[in-house]
Amino acid sequence: QSENSDKSSAESDSETEVEQVSVYHKLLATLKTSPESESNEEEDESESEAEESETEMDSEGSQGTGEADGGEEDKNDVPAQEEGSFFPHVGKRCFNTAEQTLDQEQADAADASCDPSHGAVEEFTDVKHESEFSLETNFMEEESGDCNADQRDSNSSQAISEDPFKQHMERELEEKEVEKMSTLPKTSSQTKWPRLGQLTFSSTLEKPKTLKAEKEVDVKQLHLHKPLESTWPKVNRQFLSSVNKPGDASFTPLQRELFHIMNTYRDLFYPERNALTNGEEIRHAYCLHALNHVLKANAQVLSNNAKRRDRKPGTDSDDYRDQGLTRPKVLMVVPFRECALRIVHIFISLLEVNEKKKIDVSNKKRFKGEFGSDPEEKPPNLKRPEDYEAVFAGNIDDHFRIGVAILQKSMRLYAPFYSSDIIIASPLGMRTVIGAEGEKKRDFDFLSSIEVLIIDQADIYLMQNWEHILHLMKHINLLPLDSHGVDFSRVRMLSLNNWSKYYRQTLLFSALQDPQINSVFNKHCFNYMGQVAVRNVPLSGSISHVVVQLPHVFRRLEAENSTSVIDTRFEFFVNKVLPEYRDAIMSHTLIYVPSYFDYVRLRNYFKKEDLNFTHICEYTKKAGVCRARRFFLKGEKQFLLFTERFHFYKRYTIKGIRNLIFYELPTYSHFYSEICNMMKATDNGVDATWTCTVLYSKYDAQKLAAVVGIDRTAQMLQSKKTVHLFVTGEN
């Protein structure tokens, strides 16, 4: 039997025995899952003129950060989708780990490692440490000090009432409260915090209580589990400055406010994560919270193991309900392997009290080989913006998942999912294990008892495949289809009642506000504690960073609803905008298209009308990109259709632009100024005939505010007229 965490039960379970189907299983077997979402895939374009590539493209295209060239563009209007990432050339990478670097544990499983001849990765799971990391058979170590701490908590009603973990997990909801959360709308209130800014608190059960931001925080008052009280200040020291007061030497101002919300077990949406500035301090804060949650949950189970062992016969066993239907408690969704690598390193640092007390980490060398990166793989002299370098640092493979088990002084990497406390995965990694209805090899039972869901860098999933996130949200906290050997006398009533989703805390971090991300937070988060969303409005906008003198014309289109805006935009562009650019005088026109489906529609229309154009999308091969850029620069092609995803993953400078059309406002506001500033790359310098036209509707309010600022947005949405802005420098 394959040693693979894709399988529907842990390796420790004996799957050869045929279990009798109980009433419970029959009941669960009636549950249905959502149908498979549609996907996209590209066919070949049948042109290959690699000899035409420019010198610049030779250096840019040889980028070695894991982005192999995807297939060339699809000629069909609606492409048939592959099951993988929307952007197939990210995530097909195979890392070779030299056999001599493996310790005995990895050598034993060498057949499950990377196969360089086929370029496929056989997924490895650690089956050796099952008993060592089993929650059911282990007890609290006296010498660790954790046992006494747990007993102290158990014996002190004050400690129980103050510990946020116990407050949250031990509250028993009533059926009328659950019904209320299922049917009634949320009520909300606003407040302002010094660092986070404008916060919206929302809740269904009761009038949302607005927390007050703590100006100072003592790490000893946060109810952190040992050893986090002592290790956190050391691990987090790199982010602290002399600005921090002596009594508050553990958190940055941002971390203090974020952790204050996390530690109350409310859902949190923070849309101002920046890979360049605050990304790592945010990662450290949520890692502290996740690890604190797992250590407390496991300590409770181990402590109760000892109590059950020592109890008198006939004692009520209902006193020890301390776990879910499956073991995984925390799911961390991150875009790239490098992110998983950093998270595990933070966990290890937080668990190691000092240099002398190193924790035992199983399969560490293997993990470093598969999730690390070779610095020599990245060619030198590639000029990319700083934010690009920060996002695409290290190993950017986007197809992975790994189970992590933590027990007192040890950590087990590559744990089978049903023996894991924490699962770290990419959306694609989750999608391929969850599968679709009708598939034989699919599993999502391990998501049944997730108590903390962390989705980091959510904006990047808009550039990968947002459907994977929606698919995950539909399959989390469902009743499992199998018992997986659980002791039902230890399962919390909230899990048996199928109320897990009302206890799950969701932490959502993004670089931007977006309707799709907002929708997940509003429609898929049911936490009875309520939600907190950061809702700051941009004051200036990225248009202030446009350095070329350029008239910006914002043309408003009227749509009846958010669904019809797609067709309305196309008709508006074809009938009102494009005719103005058909004249040969309006050559060198770049059309920026955020949506791939809009791009396909425009490309088909341009072909039908026999317009003189070329096109670049995220699937175009390197030779095709070289050819299109050269044709456009020399004026041999009047139009260049250009997708946002291509810009996101490549960031090439397109030379020769004289006229810009933003078919839709960009997802990332700084892309607006980046594309506009490409005009200065033209050899002729400033040209008085340069133009920039932007199409927008009232449904683009968030994107518009990020580009022009909130004040201009309010004026533009009130007025239905075309708006002309002339911006120079930092105006």
Automatic annotation (TrEMBL):
Compositional bias (Acidic residues): 38-59
Span of domain UTP25 NTP hydrolase-like: 265-532
GO molecular function: rRNA binding; U3 snoRNA binding
GO biological-process terms attached to the record: maturation of SSU-rRNA from tricistronic rRNA transcript (SSU-rRNA, 5.8S rRNA, LSU-rRNA)
Keywords carried by this UniProt record: Developmental protein, Nucleus, Phosphoprotein
Cellular component, GO annotation: small-subunit processome
Ranges in coiled-coil conformation: none
Keyword Nucleus (UniProt): yes
Main localisation: nucleus
Residues in UTP25 C-terminal domain copies: 542-726
Source species, domain of life: Eukaryota
Entries under InterPro entries matching the protein: P-loop_NTPase (IPR027417), UTP25 (IPR010678), UTP25_C (IPR053939), UTP25_NTPase-like (IPR053940)
Function summary: Component of the ribosomal small subunit processome for the biogenesis of ribosomes, functions in pre-ribosomal RNA (pre-rRNA) processing. Essential for embryonic development in part through the regulation of p53 pathway. Controls the expansion growth of digestive organs and liver. Also involved in the sympathetic neuronal development. Mediates, with CAPN3, the proteasome-independent degradation of p53/TP53.
Subunit structure: Interacts with CAPN3; the interaction is required for CAPN3 translocation to the nucleolus.
UniProt-recorded name of the protein: U3 small nucleolar RNA-associated protein 25 homolog
Species this chain originates from: Chaetura pelagica (Chimney swift)
Classification lineage: Eukaryota, Metazoa, Chordata, Craniata, Vertebrata
